[in-house]
Amino acid sequence: MPLLFFSRRFLIFSTVIPFLISIALYQLDTFDPSHLPADALLYSTTSIPPLINNQLLTGAEFIGVGLLNKPEDIAYDIDSGLIYTGCVDGWVKRVKVMESVNDSVVEDWVNTGGRPLGLAFGLHGEVIVADAYKGLLNISDDGKKTELLTDEAEGVRFNLTDAVAVVDNGVLYFTDASYKYDYSQSSFDFLEGKPHGRLMSFDPTTRTTRVLLKDLYFANGVSMSPDQTHLVFCETPIRRCSKYYIKEERVEVFIQSLPGYPDNIRYDGDGHYWIAMPTGVTTLLKLSMKYPVWRKVTAMAAKWGFNLMFAEDAGVLQVDLEGKPIALYHDRKITHLTTGIKIGEYLYCGSLLHSRILRLHFLKYPAHKSL
Ligand SMILES: *[C@@H]1O[C@H](CO)[C@@H](O)[C@H](O)[C@H]1NC(C)=O
Ligand SMILES: *[C@@H]1O[C@H](CO)[C@@H](O)[C@H](O)[C@H]1NC(C)=O
Ligand SMILES: *[C@@H]1O[C@H](CO)[C@@H](O)[C@H](O)[C@H]1NC(C)=O
Question: pLDDT of the chain along its 371 residues, tens only?
């Protein structure tokens, strides 16, 4: 029976052997993802707000197209009317935004030589930068001097300094998303599912760095509460933001089971925080988060240059001071929104993918009551 013989051999070469090779590769690969805590796998509607705009791209305008290379975070200086943003090429750029986005002026301000992520203004007009590669930086207001404030704590170097907030007494609060993986390898931190992140403070008067919380899951955005009693910080893979009470040194859940994976969180000076989510919860991400095996396969594929981590449906969630969801602006057709900040009647969004800042006039394009 030559035909059967032929097809059996074909079967062995085309499926059985590749299958055995895959198993062997899988066994040999040392990447060892963990199960995530059970509450990270909860999907609930409690974090879905009553008001939704599910077409964020409709009416959106783009600022600095091609000039702002992946502007991750945005800080707004109300006195000068300038937007500061950190780009992937190391530049902290300044943008003078005009009524018409095409009249906006983009200026190369200071290049950190690293990857500026979170930005905040210091008490003396300086710009504090959480630089993924360099650590926490202080850029003087004239842009002439860049000083490294800190890049390690308790003998452990930061590998992915991520976001920063400044308090009225001058103390800086910031996150290191991971001590184990750097910015270029950050997806592996996500896939490994282990807590390598820390929340820390830096006191400029004593120049001491303190670890407030460790073992955080990709500690990302951080924001100071308006009454200055606590911080709110986000842990991306477990879709949760928590409060850290500064005096009491106590942690409390702020909002969990988010409809996406939270990145930066920004207070708007007007009773609300805005939480950006680079991707919504997709079926693939749900599976990945639940099954470490899946994440291991994804990581192995990534090492061979294949991306199996598809992002989809990015958005910005507006919540009140108690963490109650108010409105969600999102769009299936957009990914990698990393920050959302309200300036006047506009929502400005940074991106980890696109070379532009997105802005939406949210009075003209509001979120509506959903069913
Ligand atoms: C801005 O410029 C872009 C590209 O040239 C153009 O498509 C768009 O219509 C302009 N927008 C305004 C508001 O002028
Ligand atoms: C940043 O540097 C400036 C001088 O360039 C200094 O006045 C300011 O106090 C510094 N800020 C911090 C937080 O260290
Ligand atoms: C920082 O990240 C890089 C790349 O992900 C890694 O090789 C290095 O070991 C990390 N540093 C530390 C101190 O673990």
Answer: 455 555 677 767 777 777 777 777 777 778 999 999 999 999 988 999 999 999 999 999 999 999 999 999 999 999 999 999 999 999 999 999 888 999 999 999 999 999 999 999 999 999 999 999 999 999 999 999 999 999 999 999 999 999 999 999 999 999 999 999 999 999 999 999 999 999 999 999 999 999 999 999 999 999 999 999 999 999 999 999 999 999 999 999 999 999 999 999 999 999 999 999 999 999 999 999 999 999 999 999 998 888 887 899 999 999 999 999 999 999 999 999 999 999 999 999 999 999 999 999 999 999 999 76
For the whole model, what pTM was predicted?
0.94
Give the residue, by CA position, lying nearest to ligand 1 atom 8. Answer: 102
Within a domain: 203: yes
Residue 138 alpha carbon, nearest atom of ligand 2: 1
Mutate to test the pocket of ligand 1, among 62, 97, 102 (most ligand atoms within 8 A of CB): 102
Let me know if residue 24 belongs to a domain: no
Angle CA 241–337–44, to nearest 5: 45
Residue 1 lies in a domain: no
Q: Phi and psi dihedrals of 344, rounded to 5?
A: 60, -125
Q: CB under 8 Å to 96, separation ≥6 — which residues?
A: 81, 82, 83, 104, 105, 107
Distance from the alpha carbon of residue 126 to the mean position of ligand 2, in angstroms: 6
Question: Is 15 among the domain residues?
Answer: no
The CATH number that applies at residue 297 is: 2.120.10.30
Question: How remote is the CA of residue 253 from the centroid of ligand 3, in Å?
Answer: 30
Note down the domain range covering 195: 36-369
CA distance 98 to 102: 8
Specify the number of domains making up the chain.
1
